[in-house]
Design goal:
Number of strands: 31
CATH topology of the largest domain: DHBP synthase
Number of helices: 22
Bound molecules: zinc ion
Structural class: alpha/beta
CATH architecture of the largest domain: Alpha-Beta Complex
Largest sheet: 12 strands, mixed
CATH class of the largest domain: Alpha Beta
Strand content: 15-25%
Oligomer: single chain
């Protein structure tokens, strides 16, 4: 018997080849009816036998195009009619507002094959794409996602491209950025201050390769911004890049052509390989093999290398040519680091590149498809079975995180460093791309633009603004200036905790172990080594590191020797141990500052404890990038099995630090190696946290623990704490989709704000 069903599909189903997929599937199964886009997603009416319809529904979910994501599928029985064939019906609704925009995706296998086929009309054409791949988020000016609303509006499709675009069975049916060498964007090479130096087809690429192989620095316009490229095997070239970019030691990301090349440089697990080759193409932090050909200056003193594979057709053309021109024994690897000056946002326009990169890059490889939305590369590390986001940006944004419940729309504006913002609509939380450090004027400007743009393309009108407690964060100040909306302020570490809970759609109270650098506490001191009990609406500070003075505040963060000295002073008093790092330091000045409480905020920060432990153990006295001392302390542990912990007893609410400092100092004075001290320090913390959580669990009866905070980017600590807690029978929630660092707190803020509004509360209940 013939049946007819109405099928409503919600999710990422527009601009990803979903309608042609439905059309072809329906034709194959001899189903009649139609498919059309709606403001909610995709609407299908399908008529066939019951069995066929069931098969159809299963196939819709199983065989959907690679970029599509189905969030809900609703079926309703309706009366059959006389339909005989299946059609794609054009949408009459102009307000396609509810649909989700897809992130930018790496070139697909079909397009890559055409790109490399000399007989194809798009052979080596750097803007080849189809409905399964290519730019999305970065070229959208406004919605609906149609060509006139993208940066492709400037190009008129030729007859051939148009026929692909209009043919429902073509891979390029309604591929908005569809283009070819006849009608689409093109590439050229410039030298700063000079006109185009090559424009002929592929000559720009040849010139670029020649320059790179001669040690030159080339700014390359990519998908979400410019990269600065240099030969990653050329020590001088990489050092020159560091000098010009004013970036002393922070590791630089590299790009290599394929998985085999990656294996040559790094150890690659199955999971790492699948992340590396995914359509999101993030940078993966991989363990380096010894003696690899990459210049030391790429990641000085670092055990890991940040590597990504090519993701645009332009990258593939570059690497195909690079391999053709590589000298014997050469290795194809390019530094591909965000093109910016120190902490500024990544450069996206040709004009910006000409002015801001003129004294960094020797050449600019430009094109005329505008990047409208700045989006940095995403960065991920895989620690055993834990996927840890360091930065969630290109490829993932604007895909939402789904919350357990719907609620009023809110705008959360994040923290100060590694800022992201987050908007909610229904049960979806949209995190922005990485914005950066708001202290930078250009980053602040980008922050304001991102809020506006996201509200526009997502059609969200927030009912409240959620921000941090810190009065000096620029995001807090921005929130306070929004007079037309109510504000909810959320404590920094509560936001970290809520970010994990939001990811897990977890509603019950948990013990939150939040290990972090800096966050403003309810008592006005600097928090960061916190054990909380709480959920979205209530939170209690049950334990924290014994507060220590931070001589000079911010200055101490850049100069761990100050922190080390303060922790020693608190532990030993005037009877300071004769550790080498104290020599030739203005010790007395610092002690006077501490005694007189002059610019010495108190902190329970775990990040600062790492700094102090590092310098006491013989590590770094001053740093060149964030958390460098802590990272080096962790890397010193290496593959050694961890030595036993120091004898330190857990206590609440103040977790004692002096015994750890005392034990480390005594061993350092005995001349125990940095590596060994690093191992014992980590093991001591793991043990101490497990004991503390156990103790709190016995009092509270809570058996679930959530881990968050920037310190959980530390592999040894993350895996150690996780195992220690699991061994004791705890359920442990860790971040899987957003960073444990401050890039994730806007999600936590948003989840808290949405819940409070829904319950008619105006603030978090804090005990
Ligand atoms: Zn494609
Ligand atoms: Zn064309
Ligand atoms: Zn934080």
């Amino acid at each position: 018997m013939v049946k007819r069903q109405r099928i409503e599909i919600n999710g990422i189903v527009q601009g990803v080849g979903f309608r042609p997929f439905v059309f072809n599937l329906a034709r194959k199964l001899k189903i009649s009816g139609f498919v059309r886009n709606t403001s909610q997603g995709v609407y299908i009416e399908a008529q066939a036998s019951e069995d066929t319809l069931q098969f159809f529904i299963r196939a819709l979910q199983k065989e959907k195009p690679p970029l599509a994501e189905i969030i809900s599928l609703r079926q309703t029985e309706i009366s059959p009619n006389g339909d005989r064939d299946f059609r794609i019906v054009s949408s009459t609704d102009s307000s396609l507002a509810e649909t989700l925009i897809a992130p930018d995706m790496a070139i697909c296998d079909d397009c890559l094959r055409e790109l490399r086929d000399p007989s194809d009309r798009r052979y080596r054409y750097p803007f080849i794409n189809c409905t399964n791949c290519g730019p999305r988020f970065t070229i959208i000016r406004k919605i609906p996602y149609d060509r006139p609303n993208t940066s492709m509006a400037a190009f008129t499709m030729c007859a051939q491209c148009r026929s692909e675009y209009e043919n429902p069975v073509d891979r390029r049916f309604h591929a908005q950025p569809n283009a070819c060498p006849q009608c689409g964007p093109h590439v050229w090479l410039e030298a700063p201050g000079r006109k185009k130096i090559s424009a002929a087809k592929n000559e720009a690429f040849q010139e670029t390769i020649r320059a790179l192989l001669h040690g030159r620095i080339v700014a390359i316009k990519g998908l979400g911004g410019f990269h600065l490229a240099a030969d990653a095997t050329n020590e001088q070239a990489v050092q020159r890049l560091r000098l010009r970019k004013n970036r002393e030691e922070k590791p630089l990301a590299i790009m290599v052509p394929d998985v085999e090349s990656v294996r040559h440089l790094c150890i690659l697990s199955h999971k790492e390989q699948s992340l590396l080759t995914s359509a999101q193409r993030p940078i993966i932090l991989l363990r380096q093999k010894k003696g690899n050909p990459i210049a030391r200056a790429v990641a000085p003193g670092n055990r890991r290398l940040g590597i990504m594979l090519p993701y645009t057709p332009l990258h593939y053309i570059l690497f195909d040519l690079l391999q053709e021109h590589l000298p014997e024994n050469g290795f194809p690897a390019l530094v591909m680091t965000s093109a910016n000056r120190s902490e500024e946002p990544i450069v996206i326009s040709n004009e910006e590149a000409r002015s801001r990169l003129a004294d960094i890059a020797d050449f600019l490889l430009l094109h005329n498809r505008d990047i409208l939305v700045r989006t940095d590369d995403s960065v991920i590390a895989q620690f055993k079975d834990q996927t840890v986001f360091f930065r969630r940006s290109r490829g993932y944004v604007p895909r939402p995180v789904f919350l357990a419940n719907s609620g009023p729309s809110v705008l959360a504006v994040g923290g100060q460093l590694k800022n992201t913002v987050c908007l909610t609509k229904g049960n979806r939380a949209f995190l922005s791309q990485h914005i950066g450090d708001l202290e930078n004027v250009r980053a602040y400007d980008f922050f304001e633009k991102t809020i506006e743009h996201l509200q526009n393309i997502l059609r969200i009108h927030p009912r409240a603004v959620i921000c941090d407690l810190h009065p000096q964060y620029f995001s807090t100040q921005w929130a306070k200036a929004q007079n037309h909306l109510p504000i909810i302020q959320v404590q920094h570490h509560h936001a970290h905790l809520a970010a994990v809970l939001a990811e897990w759609q977890w509603d019950d109270p948990v013990i939150g172990l939040i290990l972090d650098g800096t966050g403003y506490g309810y008592d006005g001191t600097v928090w960061g080594g916190e054990v909380l009990i709480g959920d979205f609406t209530e939170v209690r500070r049950v334990a924290y590191f014994e507060p220590m003075p931070l001589p000079g505040g911010e200055a101490a963060i850049k100069q761990p020797w100050r922190t080390g000295l303060a922790y020693l002073y608190r532990t030993f008093g005037k009877d300071l141990p004769a550790l080498p790092f104290l020599q030739a330091k203005p010790v007395q000045t610092i002690l006077t500052m501490i005694d007189n409480k002059l610019n010495c905020p108190l902190t329970s920060s775990c990040g600062r404890l790492f700094d102090a432990a590092a310098v006491i153990s013989g590590g770094r006295e001053t740093i060149h990038y964030e958390a460098q001392a802590a990272i080096e302390l962790m890397q010193a542990v290496g593959d050694q099995s961890l030595p036993p912990p120091y004898e330190v007893r857990a206590a609440v609410p103040q977790i004692p630090l002096k015994p750890i400092i005392r034990a480390l100092t005594e061993e350092a004075l005995k001349g125990i190696s940095f590596d060994r001290l690093a191992g014992r320090f980590h093991q001591t913390l793991i043990h101490l946290f497990a004991e503390t959580v156990q103790h709190i669990s016995e009092i509270s009866g809570i058996k679930t623990v959530a881990l968050s905070g920037g310190v959980f980017q530390n592999e040894i600590l993350l895996l150690g704490v996780l195992q220690a807690l699991q061994r004791r029978g705890f359920r442990v929630l860790t971040h899987r989709r957003v960073p444990p660092n401050d890039g994730g707190i806007s999600l936590g803020q948003a989840a808290i704000g949405q819940r409070l509004l829904k319950q008619g509360q105006a603030e978090v209940h804090f005990a």
